[in-house]
Amino acid sequence: MKKILLSLLMAAVVFSACKKEKDKPATTTPPATMDGFVWKEDGGVQISADSAFWTSWSNGTGIRAYKNGMASFFEINWDGTGNTSTGGKDLAAGKGLTFLKGRDTYTNTGKETLTITGSGSDKLSGSFEVAVSGGSIKKLNGTFTNIPKR
Hints:
Layout: H1 2-17, E1 36-41, E2 47-48, E3 51-57, E4 60-67, E5 72-79, E6 87-91, E7 97-101, E8 104-108, E9 112-120, E10 123-133, E11 139-148
Antiparallel strand pairs: 1-2, 1-11, 3-4, 4-5, 5-7, 6-9, 7-8, 8-10, 9-10, 10-11
């Protein structure tokens, strides 16, 4: 009988020591926005550039993004020196967006638009969705967040 009482007492101690934490309400934290340049080819997986920046010269503004050196390279250009105000930027047909991937060179098939969503402190954010020709890829879409000026 003493062994049974001792066993019950030990079980009570073990169970009281293993206190269950009360259920906490689920918290939803939005995913963190990563700075940089990402894109998708024909809606596939997201690819992150190793390096990206924006630049400006005497008659235009543009973005450059690289992955694995020149294995994947974007050159995106629009008119206007320092033209980084929020809103749409026209990408001229055949020369507004150039994307090099392997041996293929892609360009936008018609007049397309890149959207600037934020600029300041020499950082630029926005997005694009562009129909392209030049290889097997037919559409490129991307987002750039706080890319620096060079």
